[in-house]
Amino acid sequence: MSLAEFYPVADTATKTHIQQLLKQQVDYFLSATDDTPYSVLNQFKNFGVNEPHASYLGDMMRYYELFQDPAALRAVEKGMYWIFGENPWNMSWVSGIGSDYVTYPHTRFDEGSNSKQGAGVVFPGAMVSGPNMKDTKDKTSVSPWYEDRSLYQDDTNQWRYNEFSISIQAGLLYTIMGLSANSSASSTGGVTPTTLPITSPTIGDYVRGNVTVFSGSTTGLSNLEYSSTGTSGTFLPMTVSGGVYAATVDESASVAYANKRVDIRGTDATGRQSYSSTHYTVAAPLPDPSTPLIYDDFGGGGIWGSVGGNGEWVNWYTQNGGTAAFVKTTLDGLTVGKFSQTPTAVNSYAKFQPWHDFVDLSGYRYLNFKVKNPSYANLKMKIELNDGTRTYNLTGGYIAVPTTWTDLAYNLDALTPAVNKKKATLSIWLNQTSVGYGEMFMDEIKATNVASGTAPTLSAISVDHATGDAATDFTFNTTYTDAQNEKPFSMELILDGIVHQMEAVDPADVTYSDGKAYKYTTKLPVGNHSYYFHTTDTTSNAISSAVQSGPSVTQQLLLSDFNNGLATGWTPTSGTWSVQSSQYSGQAGSSNSFSIAGESSWTDYTLEAKVSVTNNTNGNKDAGLLARYTDANNYYMLYLKNNDHASSRKMELIKSVAGVKTVLGYSSASIAADTFYTYKIVLNGSTISVYKDGALQFSAVDTTFTSGKIGARTYANTKAYFDDVLVTR
Length: 729
Prior knowledge:
mainly beta; 6 helices; flat
């Protein structure tokens, strides 16, 4: 928004150009904040959302000062509510302001009081960076996440959510001063961008493989595009899927627990763009023999190694004197961790931990450590695991470290009492049997499984409804069978790439060798969906069923069955129209007679109706349906002529432009007089497909009309009946 400062001194043409550029920025912020009920910028990154959010608020304030746009001022007001407490945590992220404010702003002041008993400090007016996508200490936390906690409770690189800096503060201070100078200004009015929701995935979802991103209603928007590389990245076109737009993002090569964001945008008739974003997390692979869980490879990889930094293993303390250290180095062509100790007595013990980190080892049987003792004969090591309740001595005491690279494997399932693998914290201890320096190298820590038996199978794959709407409950089913009677670690339904945990149909059934049924029930957003099932027994590699197409979910725009004797929402233009015996009867005058329904903003939709073309006295045996109707001279029309009509074109699609009619397609399907058939017109962009009783008759391509209402038509004294008129998208 630095352009705003050039605006007052620019010439007229440059001012116009500057305002256009600034308006694009304003529209981006307005449309990005309508994704949430709190009017906060929908960008929950790893450094907190408040810094970009407050910066945009300063930009909006400056725009209002220059151009008096109440929509920008309203965005400022709502955005400030978020900062001062109108958020899911009811927290003011400005220290000392409000009834419940942040008490641990991570500054030098907090560091000075950093202890287990520290109550934090008040740093009046300091705004912290706020919610992240995930808890910096727990990759499986809720999304978005925030907790006001001290530095003492955090690990390396995990302080960012409560960071305070001038860059974070600048937007807030400018906005407050701007509001003070415009305290009597009204934020009523102004034009905001068209809402562009993303219906799936939603923030907090876990995904695998190909992820389908669905837009919501896109009325008034076209040219929808998506980007998985940020708003400054490349936008690619989305495609129409069941009346909405969709795009597929391949996350199969993405790192486990990676937090991802997808942005979409659309353009309205004036060229203004609307934006929307969604966030999701890449699910970890299931624990099978082919996919070990790498905790730390000491080269920057692994669940902990990728975030721990160079000092990822901390010498927590050295018991009975001496010093100890951890560094990363290279040995034998490997990047390794070097743990060293210089004791002052033979009973000196050095303890190393990955800060406060814990790891979920669920589903894995073995914990492996690849170690080497370069030549220190007096060096001994002990490895402990704490599950939050008790500490297990994996090595059974201090052991000698092999002088060649050796993979030490410990059977977690053999521990007694049974270990809780959900929250494991590791400790590595060193000891020297005589006073003197010693060191040990470690190349990798990982959790593993060993293959045995045969893989399970998945059968009886189904979903109970092939079609439905947003209110339909869809139940997905499969049967898991394992010849060794091993239970599944997890039975997953992968629906549009989103992971859902299935439940047993009969929880009491513990026999898996003869098949156990699982199900998952959910509602779905509008669009064409796909699914498969994914599982492992942990002793064989994970398996997936084939991808299934469906179900298809539509949005009902209109339903007229006329059972109440009324034609609510229908407006005749001429002729005689009425409801007779729960059917809509229309009889034309000397030419076309229409009855119109629906909205002019409808773009892509499916019109379905039952129509009976009668042989009434003096009638022309000619009726029809209208689509994308603009007015009496501009529309698409499907002629329907019964078998007693002279024309061989019983079904004929035409367009009328300023009253001039052009044939787009036709068929000679049999239409018996006084007989109901179900006709369907599918409008998908420029493609128009016409069906009779579920059978495709023909398709046409035309770009003349992109939106419009629907209607019923009779011609030249013809009487026709219409029933069960349904419009979906």
